[in-house]
Amino acid sequence: MLTNGPRGTNDILPQEVGKWHILEGKIRAWCERYRFGEIRTPIFEHTELFLRGVGETTDIVEKEMYTFTDRGDRSITLRPEGTASTVRAFLQHKLAGQAPLQKMYYMGPMFRYDRPQAGRYRQFHQFGVEMLGSSEAIADAETIVIALDILKELGLNDLEVHINSIGCPQCRQVHKEKLMEFLGDRLSELCPDCVSRFERNPLRILDCKNKKCQAIVSDAPAVMTCLCDECRTHFEKLQSYLQKLNVKYEVDTNLVRGLDYYTKTVFEIMYSGLGAQSTVCGGGRYDGLVEECGGPSTPAVGFAMGLERVLLTLEKMDIQLAVPQGIDLFIASMGEEAQVEAFSLLHQCRAHGLKAEMDYRKRSLKAQMKQANKLGAEKVVILGEEELNKGQAIIRLMETGEQLEVELSQLTEKLKG
RNA sequence: GUGGGUGUAGCCAAACGGUUAAGGCGCUGGAUUGUGGUUCCAGUAUUCGUGGGUUCGAUUCCCAUCACUCACCCCA
């Protein structure tokens, strides 16, 4: 208990945090180019926000939320996703009044009480983008494209992009009726999960992984066939934008997403090498959500990217992020007096911007040299009593083994060069 | 929530129902007293996730429990 973190959580140790920094850095840089502004919302919200925002019948809400009552008797939930909070903040701060189109991104931990598995954790990290205020398909395209640009820069070129349209609520109603009619007499052939889905969310039967269900569903009416004119042209426009930018994608008419708020466009970026959790990035349009949360009708699109999954994909593809390593300087000292001097020197070097380290345990010179080597020090300053008495120090260039004696007063100058 | 697999040192990893639990990596120290990366030597688990049971005897067999892991479900 004491020596184990809670199930489904991970410590990111100093030796592995470097790749997170790089990943986050690249994400931020791309968001700046695309002019998405970062929004940082609280990690917990009123439970109601997610009930409304994510949807009461979703698995997330029904069985995956970390919900508790705080000391003021409020029901609080650790955020399971980022869109609801972003929309809440958008309304709370009346951002629409500042500019009719808002482009925002968030990055941080999310919480879902799932059974942990490859690429799935109880605390995990998402980066997500939201564009509020445009109903145009070009906005859908923009979100897909920024995701791809980021993944591409990381070296992930060949991920699959799946897109679909699940229509507006009207198209969906038409489709739902047709679908239920189609599946009605085949209920007995479906898997138990699908039978229960039939009542709650028949659309989800379309992406059941059960082979038998897939066979049945392959002849089922696709949402695509029920789209109204507006939804149809929206989807066509999206595709023409993607084609214009040479984005390779597949229309996957069985692609359905599990959150209630999606309308029209849905998409996923996947890497099959990840196992069961192959979706690296998923999103879509959610034109009804802002209104659902009590705001004015506002069209919006967005996606969320699972950072652990991105990192996992990089690992599977054997791609290393270039984490800088090595230090500029190691100061080795011998004797109490020299160590005091070394400490002061170290301090000065750091003030001059050098990445510098010393030994804190009075170890032998040999041990200190070994440590310097292990740390990848470019230079080592050697400071013993002899040098101290002469007012000098030795600078050793580790690569060549070349050494020179330098006056202490000139040391930091020499080291910078 | 359901099902499968695994559980030996910081990491990887053997062995075996029975005296002192291989090896490798890593780490630490040393190879004449103040110098790294190679090499060599030495040290590094009174203990085999935890708790029961079977047995003359269990790390090895059984049960439970916990943890990890994979799959279903769902999703990032």
Question: What would you say this structure looks like, in words?
Answer:
The protein has 417 residues and is of the alpha+beta class. The protein folds into two domains: 14-168 and 228-316, BirA Bifunctional Protein, domain 2; 327-416, Rossmann fold. The chain has helices spanning 14-33, 47-54, 59-63, 83-92, 95-98, 137-153, 169-184, 192-200, 211-217, 229-244, 289-292, 307-316, 336-351, 365-375, 385-390, 411-416, and strands at 37-38, 44-46, 66-69, 75-78, 102-111, 123-132, 160-165, 250-251, 263-270, 279-285, 300-306, 327-333, 356-358, 377-383, 392-397, 403-407. The strands form three sheets. Strands 1-5-6-11-10-9-7-8 form an eight-stranded mixed β-sheet. It has a five-stranded mixed β-sheet with strand order 13-12-14-15-16. Strands 2-4-3 form a three-stranded antiparallel β-sheet. Helix 1 (14-33) packs antiparallel against helix 6 (137-153), helix 2 crosses helix 4 and helix 6 (137-153) packs parallel to helix 10. The two termini are 51 Å apart. 33% of the residues are buried. It binds one RNA strand of 76 nucleotides through residues 1, 4, 7, 58-60, 63-64, 81, 110, 112, 114-121, 124-128, 193, 204, 209-210, 257-259, 275-277, 279-282, 303-310, 332, 334, 364-374, 377, 380, 382, 384-386, 394, 396, 398, 401, 403.
